[in-house]
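FORM 7B: Structural annotation worksheet

SECTION A. Query
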Amino acid sequence: MIRIGSVIIPGRISLSPMAGISDSPTRRICRKFGAAFSYTEFVNTDELVHKAPKAFKMFRFHPEERPITFQIFGNRLEIISEATEIIQELEPDIIDLNMGCSTRKVSLRGAGAGLLRRPLLAGKIIEAMKKRVNIPVTAKIRIGWDATSRNYLEVSKILEESGIDALTVHGRTKEMAYTGFADWDAIGEVKVNRKIPIFGNGDIKSFQEANSKINKYSLDGVLIGRNAIGNPWIFSEVKKEELSWSEISDIILQHARWMIEDYGEEFGLLLFRKHLVKYLNGLEFDPTWKMELLEIKEWNRFEDILLSDKRRNVLAVP
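SECTION B. Predicted structure
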């Protein structure tokens, strides 16, 4: 159990924010298996200030997702500050500034990882956010823009001096995106040099590895991203490969139901496909069964096919 500002976090391993992935149904499934707290997908502060309905829909959450962190991104201090005050009315527990998104359309306009190139501005943004709200403010960064500008110690120092309540460090540069390997020694350096809670992120493949990273680098916690897609059990000692098909299919159906509740039947099942593919990773089945599942647009048929004998002895691969 750790504390971010006034918020108590009941664990040390959580789901990382991921665009197009970490929506409410996915967060709830991960919390069910032990994820300590939740992040929304990142939301554009320009859209929030202009009251775009789509932006506010991304902040929908259920009580069981608390503590809930709303993540935002932007490149203009005044807009970010105003958006921070607006979303506090939606009662998140924490507000997080994305400083790690590596996509060109975000980073090249100075938002996301683009803020790593302007650490003094990032510090002023954090100061402005803190003045507008009475809840904790955090940020998620990368270790630098590229191999020649690994300025994670400078950035983390400026953010700490600006009053940030906690910091997550992804162990890659913006230039690396998701290639290569995360530099956990760099994450450990941040922890050694900062007094605020520090979370690490990058390449964690199991519950055991998560705890190993926490212990090795004396971190306050870690976030798991891509390896949690279709594997919510990663937040517990349960190993997916040891589960029966009945246990796996129960969670697939629960996740799909929640997607339908949030998005409607056809669109919910469409969005669920990227999760389903990951749930089925490591399993053996008739390929035509999988193809049929991925094309279904009606809930009753989805459930019938998922549980039918067409899967032909779905078994975990040793």
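SECTION C. Observations
The domain at 2-235 is CATH 3.20.20.70 (TIM Barrel). Residues 296 and 302 are 6 Å apart (CA to CA).

SECTION D. Sign-off
Analyst initials: ____
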